[in-house]
């Protein structure tokens, strides 16, 4: 994931309804349930760093990675204000390169869906496996084909927040469960005029069987699949699924 210039600037305001503290507590609980160590945590596709900061406050040694310099600039501004010891790296998820092994990797807010195709998803999971400590965890959530088809679909969403008006238009393709997203931002200036910005990106969704096969082929054991934001098993009509996978392969990075 790269770019996201205007979107990075407005991202926190558009997602102000998300409690990142609760998100971190939820993922931390999943890690505890499945034997994860509260040691080195990788926040993969960290965006503007809101979740990274919460994990750091919970006692993890946080490394945060994102492919967007614009997103990371916002994250570094937060780090400057909070003073938290988080290491931010600008890397493409498909080319993840760590200095050593990771105990828990979290990839939240449907970030894997933003990859261009299944090959990129496979490469990312393989790289996470490569740097995951034996017995370590990979916890991530993904939007399902059900959500793309029935919720996002060919729909338009409007966000009217302080000084910013955003029109979010989706176009759905059944062929690969892809949703093309077009965003128009209208920012109110001090003189009362509005300045327009445009942003576009896409998300793909993949069947559960496909995700499971990629995980297993990459050396993971699937130890949990949950309906989003709960500890209940995923369902056929789950809009998001949270996967918890445990690394089985012995590590040798030398």
Can you offer a commentary on this structure?
This protein has 254 residues and is of the alpha/beta class. It is built from 7 helices and 11 strands. The strands form 2 sheets. Strands 3-2-1-4-5-11-10 form a 7-stranded mixed sheet, sandwiched between helices. β8 (178-188) and β9 (194-204) form a beta hairpin. It starts with a helix and ends in a 7-residue tail after the last strand. The model has no long low-confidence stretch (mean pLDDT 91).
Please state the CA-atom Rg, rounded to the nearest Å. 18 Å
| Unreliable parts | none
Oligomeric status: single chain
Helical element count? 7
Beta content: 25-35%
Number of strands: 11
Helix content: 25-40%
**Computed structural class:** alpha/beta
> pLDDT average, as an integer?
91
Q: How would you characterize the largest beta sheet?
A: 7 strands, mixed
Q: What order do the SSEs take from the amino end to the carboxyl end, as H and E?
A: HHEHEHEEHEHEEEEHEE
Q: Record the strand order, biggest sheet.
A: 3-2-1-4-5-11-10
Shape: globular
